[in-house]
C-alpha cells in the first residue's frame, strides 16, 4: 500500500482570487441597490452575469477565451448546479403563485384567528419544518414562507 495522497495546498492569495466573483456579485448588487435606493429594482441576473464574466476573465488554466468559456459552461451545466437553479426557480414560482391567488392572505388571516399572537413564531417554525421535509430544500422553505412571515409581521 502506498502512503497518503498529498493534496496540493491553495495559497491564501489564490483562494481569495477564486472567491473574487462572489465579491463582484455582492458588491455590484449592493452598490447599485444602495444607489437606486431599492433592493428589488436591481436584477440579480445582471449582477450574476457580471460575476460570471469576471470569473471567465480571471480563470488561468483555460488558455484561450473559448476554452475558458467552455469550461465555465460545462461546470455551470453540472447536474448539481442545475438542480439548485431549478429549486430556486420553482420555489419562487410557488411563492408568486401563492401570493397571486390570495393563499398568503387567507393563510395569514386563518393563522391569526386560530393561533394566539404569542404562538405565531413557534407556528412559523413548525410550518417551516413541515415544508422543508416535504420539499427537501431550505431555499424553497425560505422562499415559500417569507411572504407569509412578512404579512404576519
Care to give the gist of this entry?
The chain is an all-alpha fold. It contains 7 helices and no strands.
Which key features would you list for this structure?
single chain, 153 residues, mainly alpha
Could you explain the architecture of this structure?
The radius of gyration is 21 Å and the shape is elongated. It has 2 domains: 12-76, no CATH class; 82-152, no CATH class. 7% of the residues are buried. The protein has 7 helices and no strands. The protein is 76% helix and 0% strand.
Spatial extent as radius of gyration: 21 Å
Instruction: Please tally the β strands and state the result.
Output: 0
Alpha carbon gap, first and last residue = 62 Å
Q: What is the general shape? A: elongated
Write down the secondary-structure element order. Answer: HHHHHHH
Q: What is the structural class?
A: mainly alpha
Number of domains in the coordinates? 2
Mean pLDDT: 80
Taking the sheet with the most strands, its summary is:
none
What share of the residues lie within helices? over 70%
Number of helical stretches of at least 4 residues: 7
Low-confidence runs: 1-7
Percent strand equals under 5%
